[in-house]
Design a protein that fits this description.
single chain, alpha+beta, six-stranded mixed sheet, 14 strands
């Protein structure tokens, strides 16, 4: 069986970074209180309101050149990026965290080692789930059409090795059985929009039928609540809509990866599942890296806009002072909402997308939002603020951790004076998990749309009528190359997995 959570932590590695910073912050309070100046805004996220849960997503970019290298870096305890990632997570204090951009190994050793570091930094997260992603999984086909096999873009998802840039879920709450939608083939998605070149499927008919939808992974994770209700986490990391050709394979795929959650919310499910994936009494919460900004950057932005408008979800619009301060002056819609610090120019001096909003936490519309933000502090004066032994303030620490910033939303499962939502169970998949490879238990999704689940347009697979065309292409695409976000996408089997403490 694949081991999830509860994996023995690696040898004890002392972490003094967070303790030092917290002491430094406390020491500044009397001085500032005695002054006539107003107290500064907190540099770290404030604690959640009593009774609230903090749900976060963080693309930590903990990716390395080969398998096992990340585990080495975590275990040795001397890697500045790992230390910074641990400090960011411990300071943010999430109850539930989707960690993206994380090299995943079969037995979860890297995840166990990182959990140990986070716990020693003062924020234990006793429950976890991890599984090998599509990234780096060999397809045996020429998926990028370059006439060669076994390149990183020929994998089911872009990656130099299986597990590169995967995902992990960490939680302070127990987790239910996980439904892994990552094996779903793109062609099996209702109304699938497949890439074409010269009027033919790209790169060929066989590859188009076997290519998976998920660049990394799509997971449905139930989280039982004390009041008898249940959160249903919709977790994913979509590939970037760039690095392709006129067939727009990555642009189309990114849009479809985001559209999958709209279909699931509207009641669609693979044909061999019993009932809907999300029950009417469940409280869905989407958390992931969409790699799509609705206002700026490359890709088919209507896909993200439609997801933000879904009536079952709510956009709390997390913002930060650091993102607003980092705005270069380029037209960027609402810069305070940005979640990634990308350059405005590439190495050759050409235009690059700059800062964008590509990470989202969208809770159920019935949940009361009690707080939200992006952990992106504005730069501090050198003379003030808590600093680590290297003289770094929080703005420098979050920049050392990743170009992406941790996004968090606090929700109260039950409004004051109201009873919790009625629990609804997910019917089990037909098939069973066996062995240690992702995907035991074959399930063939249906191309038949769910009855009675039409959108306002009357077609369950069309974009809302407010758009002139679904997913309009952007002719200025494919200019920026993020360090570790290029993901490719084919066939496997949907599986039910059990997370363990």
């Amino acid at each position: 069986m694949v081991r999830h959570g509860g994996i023995a932590a690696c040898r004890n590695v002392g972490l003094r970074l967070v303790a030092f910073l917290l002491v430094g912050l406390l020491c500044t309070v009397p001085v500032r209180a005695a002054s006539a100046q107003a107290p500064p805004l907190p540099l770290t996220p404030p604690p959640p309101e009593k009774g609230s849960l903090r749900i976060a997503v963080f693309n930590a970019e903990l990716t390395r050149r080969g398998p096992g290298v990340l585990l080495r870096d975590i275990s040795q305890g001397r890697d500045p990026q790992v230390e910074a990632v641990v400090a960011v997570i411990a300071a943010a204090r999430p109850d539930i965290l989707l960690l993206a951009g994380f090299d995943t190994d079969l037995d979860g050793h890297a995840l166990a080692a990182l959990r140990g570091q986070i716990s020693r930094a003062g924020h234990p997260m006793d429950h976890a789930f991890g599984a090998l992603p599509n990234a780096g999984l060999s397809s045996g086909m020429d998926l990028d059409g370059d006439g060669r096999l076994n390149g990183p873009r020929d994998a089911q998802g872009y990656g130099a090795f299986h597990g590169a840039g995967g995902m992990a879920l960490l939680s302070r709450l127990p987790l239910g059985s996980v439904t892994d939608l990552s094996p779903l083939r793109w062609a099996e998605l209702p109304g699938a929009r497949l890439p074409r070149r010269g009027g033919k499927l790209f790169p060929d008919e066989k590859a188009a039928q076997q290519r998976r939808l998920s660049s990394v992974a799509h997971w449905l994770v139930p989280v039982p609540l004390p009041d008898g209700g249940r959160l249903m986490l919709m977790l994913y990391h979509a590939g970037p809509p760039v690095f392709d050709g006129p067939e727009d394979a990555n642009g189309l795929r990114n849009a479809e990866e985001n559209r999958l959650w709209r279909l699931v919310l509207d009641g669609w499910a693979p044909s061999q599942t019993e009932g809907q994936l999300i029950g009417s009494g469940d409280l869905p919460v989407l958390a992931g890296i969409s790699n799509l900004d609705v206002r700026r950057g490359e890709g088919r932005r209507a896909a993200m806009a439609a997801l933000l408008r879904h009536p079952r979800l709510r956009d709390a619009r997390p913002a930060s002072a650091g993102a607003a301060a980092a705005n270069s002056g380029a037209p960027n819609g609402e810069p305070a909402l940005d979640t990634v610090d990308w350059p405005e120019e590439d190495a050759a001096g050409g235009p690059a997308p700059g800062n964008l909003r590509v990470a989202y936490v969208l809770p159920d519309a019935r949940l009361r939002v009690t707080g939200a933000g992006v952990f992106w502090p504005a730069p501090q004066p050198k003379a003030g603020g808590a600093r680590d032994r290297g003289g770094r303030g929080w703005a420098e620490i979050v920049a050392t951790a990743s170009r992406h910033r941790l996004v968090w939303v606090d929700v109260a499962p039950s409004p004051p004076g109201a009873s919790g939502p009625r629990r609804a169970d997910i019917s089990p998949l037909r098939g069973r998990v066996r062995g240690t490879t992702p995907g035991a238990g074959r399930v063939r999704p249906s191309l038949t749309p769910p009855a009675g689940r039409d959108t306002p347009s009357g077609d369950p697979f069309k974009e809302p009528a407010t758009h002139e065309q679904p997913y309009p292409s952007d002719p200025s695409r494919r200019r920026h190359r993020p360090r570790s976000d290029d993901r490719g996408a084919p066939h496997h089997r949907l599986v039910r997995r059990q997370a363990r403490p």
